[in-house]
Amino acid sequence: MTDRVSFLKKVAPFNLLPDDVLEGVADLLQEVTHQKESVIYHQQVTKLKGVDILVTGAYETFFYDSEQNKRILENLHPGQLYGGVSVLLNRKRSLRTVIAKKGTKVYFLPRRDFRGLCQAYEEFFHYFTQEFGRRMMDDDFAHFVKHPTFFEENYIATDQLYSRKMESVEYRNIISCVTNTPIYEAARLMGEHRISCLFVTNAQQKIIGYVTDITLRNNVVAQQIDARLPVASIMDNPIVSIPCKAFVYEAILLMFSTKTQYLLIEENGEYRGVISRNKLLSEQSQSPFVFIQSVKLALSDDELRSKWKKVPEIVTQLLGRGVKAEIVNQVITNVADSIALKVIEDVIAEMGTPPAKFVFMVLGSEGRKEQTLKTDQDNAIIYEDKANEQRELVREYFLKFADTVSERLNNIGFSYCTGGYMAKNPKWTHSLSHWKRNYISWMEESLPETVIKFSTFFDCRYLYGDVTIINELQEFLNEELQKPHEKLFFHMANNALQYEPPLTFFKNIKTFTVGSQEVFDIKKAMTPIVDLVRVYALKNRIFLTNTGERLDALKAQGIFTETEYLELIQSYYYLMSLRLKKQASLIINDNREPENFMNITSLTKIEQVTIIEIFKTIRNFQGKIRINFTNNIFG
């Protein structure tokens, strides 16, 4: 037994585990001997029952190509492990073909025990996701992993991901302690129940915080805190929960956006259980969310650029499996957000702690969480007001910071905004008081050009920094919008009427010629829906940014009927789906930059008829907004 423990201490990632855990793992290992040249696993066929740790001999691992040639051949030697990535990220099926060489002996760890370690120890789990992310940077490796037949099999799981609800997911019971529990007692409880997250409750038995293995490491051991202090003094926040009727994909997106590792499951106002992000991700095989996790683990701009280039393939697969366009938008936005956050955090690490609290916000389609594959940078910075003698120093820091972030995003693949709506533009990096004056002047002037700025910055969304700053700005806007602003809404309504649906007199799709093709601009065709929904949201002081979420809120308030709501939301996301498919096809099949021109001959008759009906719907709503906001029925 001692020999096995000593051996495991030299094997990554088992060397990350505590000694007492390694002793338990050593008990679970089964010794297996393989005959020379025997095929142990077949790529994408063999379902792994666990993982192998080589003790003697070697494994020859490779991919077979279509002509049965061995590709990317690698040998694993004693102290190396096979099967972790396959079990966690490939639906338990072997990624590669494996042949045993002479004198091969392995320690076999059953799948259930291996997954238990992954769920209990975050660094252990991340070893495999990081390794997979690193390997996927190799084009040849990625090609064989993403073989079309393999893609089809894996994306059957994606169908379940987007239809499955949290109530069907296996989650753990909530283990908790009270606020005055000593830290050492909390750690003992965690060990006793074999959990990595312990919740903390107040006198009313309400959960107010939590403690994880990482909390104990960072807040207790690293800080040399007295373990007799109450657990409330070192607990983490905030508590994040989701209804049991929510979809699995919604839970994963929530965990990414809040950066939480643990999610409470709620039913009828009570917490029923808890699930970790590792648990959810490990069940999702090749889902886009494992890809998002790999983005978060990227170590360089080159890696991030490579990740962004892979997004069109994910979009194509999701749309091909019938996943809704609004979900695909969210996946794209989450990848873009993850990349931007990595860049921001790296730049702060290079430049040092900011001299003031600030918020980095995104605008436009990214602000609305409606990003497509043809995207540029739209962002701004708000920093807290400082005394006169500090203002120039603060401003100098944030302008340099914005310029560095913007340049790096441009190199990764997010091009500069042609309209200049970027934080690197000194106009859009300012103090909170300056931003308040901006909004007041735009509302009071209410000229067509200032209304466009107001619309752009009304679609702002928090990405990084001190969220209280953007909350204060929204509270300020909420108060201002309760004053009469007829002129503002008049010009905003006119802005929503600027782009007419491209219909001919005979109700056919109106096109124009680009090269040899007859096309229409699908982005401009969608713009009226975004604009008119924004006007109604602004009028009713709804500060959600996403078009679909705004429509939900407007329906809830009775501004739109159920029929009107369905007409608009179905129209918008039908056009969005076509737009995303076209852009992904241009990138993948034609190696071209994405664009928004739709070739009329590329559409089926059914698609053309549907689009014509959508354009009629948009025209009808434009008539409604004309009456409600401009008092001009004839335009």
Q: Would you kindly provide a written description of the structure presented here, covering whatever features stand out?
A:
With 635 residues, this protein is of the alpha+beta class. It is globular. The protein folds into 4 domains: 1-150, Jelly Rolls (Sandwich), CATH 2.60.120.10; 166-283, CBS-domain, CATH 3.10.580.10; 299-442 and 456-473, Beta Polymerase, domain 2 (2-Layer Sandwich); 495-631, Four Helix Bundle (Hemerythrin (Met), subunit A) (Up-down Bundle). Helices cover 51% and strands 16% of the residues. The protein has a 4-stranded antiparallel beta sheet with strand order 1-8-3-6. A 4-stranded antiparallel beta sheet has the order 2-7-4-5, with helices on one face. α23 packs across α24. The protein has 24 helices and 21 strands. This is CBS domain-containing protein. Keywords: CBS domain. Residues 13-135 form the Cyclic nucleotide-binding domain. One of its GO terms (molecular function) is [protein-PII] uridylyltransferase activity. It holds the Pfam family DUF294.
